[in-house]
Automatic annotation (TrEMBL):
Listed transmembrane segments: 19-37, 49-73, 93-117, 129-148, 154-173
Domain Amino acid transporter transmembrane intervals: 20-177
PANTHER family for this protein: AMINO ACID TRANSPORTER, AMINO ACID TRANSPORTER TRANSMEMBRANE DOMAIN-CONTAINING PROTEIN
Official protein name in the record: Amino acid transporter transmembrane domain-containing protein
Compartments (UniProt record): Membrane
Cellular compartments per GO CC: vacuolar membrane
Coiled-coil portions: none
Molecular function terms, GO-annotated: L-amino acid transmembrane transporter activity
Membrane-topology annotation of the record: Multi-pass membrane protein
Pfam family, one: Aa_trans
Keywords in alphabetical order: Membrane, Transmembrane, Transmembrane helix
Amino acid sequence: MTATPVRHSPFYTLEDAKISFNIFCCFCGIGSLSMPSNYARAGPIYATIALLLMAFVNIYATIALSKVINAAPPSVKTFTDVGAWVFGTTGRYAVMLSQLLVCLLLPCAFLVLGSMLLDVLFPDAFSQIFWMIFMAVTVIPVCLIPTLKEASSVALVGCLGTIIADVVGVSILEWEMRGHPSIPTPDVSLHQV
């Protein structure tokens, strides 16, 4: 009798890399670029507490969803399937409605927030309406990608762009802060968090 050879699967595949890019963009994307503003508004203590609370809630939700999907039958593959499996037809429609609202309102928020940010970064260069149209034109190719699997190349570019933007931003800040007096203590209240 001959022994059957044991096949070892690779530890880290291309699919794992694609997922890693998407997770990195979720974790360090727009959030890392807005962290200095959050810390300036809320102060180091409240901002760190809020950051840790949001991290805990997101990690808990991810683990809970993973457990639900592991316990679900093989026919459950999407968020709407999970909603239908757990809460029936009402759950399917509730999940579908929340996903549709996210898909419709999030681009609107990015258009408005992006145009406001670009208007502040480049004052008197163009109007806020121009920046909003510019953001819409640059986002259109991303909106045409049907799934996250195909968007992994965009996620890779987003990863690199985020890292470069963070390094450049911190470097400029450190360079410009030479000889500057220490920062004043923020006037913090709980509603700013």
